[in-house]
Amino acid sequence: MKMREDNYGGFLLSKNVMLGIPIAYTYRVEPSIPALNGWYIYSSRDDNEYVSNPENFEIVSAQTMFSIAPVMAEFFEAKFGTDLAWLYEEGVHIGFYDLIADKETTIPEIMGWD
Questions:
Q1: Residue 24 and which of 7, 70, 90, 92 are 20 to 30 A apart at CA?
Q2: 3-class DSSP state of 80
Q3: pLDDT in tens, 46-62
């Protein structure tokens, strides 16, 4: 099912990702604000001090998020509680590690299709 752009809600995105730093971590929680979709996206440079400052994040549209990381569109509707580390090889994104299941995972597994 293809959703209209305005039905996606906003992604809470680290400003480091906007600066081109690779995504290291994404998780989804049930949003407390209806305008958000529950996805939080962190860069590989985001430490505890950085993420503790709300000024280091911005809310972006699906169009912006999917232009930065098109693969997010493939698992956008993953269930709340999804908790993923992004895996890289020589600077190229190659997959995901499910931090809840403690194993490498695939998009079909993330989506519950397997």
A1: 7
A2: coil
A3: 999 999 999 999 999 99
For the chain, report the end-to-end CA distance as a whole number of angstroms: 19
Q: How far apart are CA 82 and CA 63, in angstroms?
A: 21
Extract the tokens encoding 13: 């995105």
Residues 6+ apart with CB under 8 A from 16: 42, 43, 45, 46, 50, 56
- Pairing of the two strands 23-28 and 83-89: antiparallel
Matching residue, tokens 């995504």: 23
The amino acid sitting at 16 is: N
Domain ranges of the chain: 5-111
> Using CA atoms, how far apart are residues 93 and 86, in angstroms rounded to an integer?
7
Whether the pTM exceeds 0.70: the reply is yes
